[in-house]
Write a structure and sequence with these properties.
Layout lengths: L5 H5 L6 E5 L4 E5 L4 H12 L4 E7 L2 E7 L2 H20 L10 H4 L4 H14 L6 H6 L4
Antiparallel strand pairs: 1-2, 3-4
Helix pairs in contact: 2-3, 3-5
Amino acid sequence: MAILTKADILNGIKNPKKIEIEALNGELWLRPLSSAEVNEVTNIEAEGYGTFNAKQSRKETLADAKMSLPAMQKATAKAKYTAIEKSLDNPKNTDKFTYEDLKEFPINAIDEIYDHVMDLSGANTTETDVKKFPED
């Protein structure tokens, strides 16, 4: 196994990959997001989750939540557009894609591109991850 340098590690986010996007019938250059960028995207999405309260009362835990589906949808969309905009911002793309541009993309293209960005970034939850998660 090779010893990595700082440059080797940081080069990952500077190394775009040409990815086929079936929904657009073409290819885009996407780069992985840094860990800070992934955290930013997941925090944006978490803003839409609502509020959760839990109290321990003797032998049981009492919990309640307030959620807004429109707020969740808005936060999820904002997270996707942000991730895609950051990924498309790389030296291989001659066009600059803005957040507003992405709002004009077909939804199936946004979903597909977002999945690729998160895969490239190592941030997608897999079926294996779900199976390993404790049930209780």
